[in-house]
Amino acid sequence: MPLAARMRPQTLEYYLGQEHLLAEDKPLRRALDSGQLHSMIFWGPPGVGKTTLAQLIAQLCDAHFISISAVLAGVKDIRAAVEEAKKQQFFQRRTILFIDEVHRFNKAQQDAFLPYVEDGTVIFVGATTENPSFEINNALLSRARVYQLKALNDEALARIIQHAAERERWEIDATQITRIAAHADGDARRALNLIELAGDMVLSLGDQRVLNEHIVDQILNGQPRRFDK
Questions:
Q1: What is the mean pLDDT of the chain?
Q2: Of 19, 40, 133, 206, whose CA is between 20 and 30 Å from 52?
Q3: Would you report the helix, strand and coil content of the chain in percent, each value rounded to 5?
Q4: DSSP letters along 147-181, please?
């Protein structure tokens, strides 16, 4: 299992970033604290915690969680998810239907689950890197609240990198953590992939578990930075 998957926070307490949504008295936090789940769309760049936040919301609200990738799934998968959600209703349990990269669904695919959002069979949570106003059907958009997630700042990324290093028992100093955080461009997944690459390199060289400047130089050289289109 990749380090980024192993490092997913298990509770909202350890979720870093998005304070504008999750701090006390912020809109999403108020909804979660009240237990009033609603359909929502998480819009933001890669690696900022859209999938993780959806999973944590389901856990916090004791809702059944179904995840679909719009890249791989079709109408058949949507129907299967709806049937599973109906079974959960029998046990009086809510279902969150999480659709990753929902902008990749065409109109027919989006229309396929719209009735079940309307009647409450599922609580729809979509994740997208694209502006929902242009990529999501108006009918679906009108039934979901859009929350914009922001790229993580370097401080949050540094904390994630430090925690990963402690968990994997790698030695790395603050300067190298700062360099990796800056190179990750606000993307936690990218930051974790970079430090995992450094850790793998150290092991392959048979060295001690020290991620020094030389190792970090090697993993950062040739790694393209992320820029907006």
A1: 92
A2: 133
A3: 50, 10, 35
A4: EE--PPPHHHHHHHHHHHHHHHT-B--HHHHHHHH
Domains of the chain, first to last:
17-148 (3.40.50.300), 154-220 (1.10.8.60)
Rounded CA-CA distance 160/182 in Å is: 13
Which one, of 4, 30, 64, 13, lies nearest residue 145 by Cα?
30
Separation between Cα atoms, residue 37 and residue 206, nearest integer Å = 50
Q: Find out whether 136 and 52 touch, Cβ atoms under 8 Å.
A: no
How confident is the model over 183-206, as pLDDT tens digits? Answer: 999 999 999 999 999 999 888 877
**CA pair distance 53, 99, nearest whole angstrom:** 13
pLDDT (tens digit per residue) in 27-64: 899 888 888 889 999 999 999 999 999 999 999 999 99
- pTM score of the predicted model: 0.90
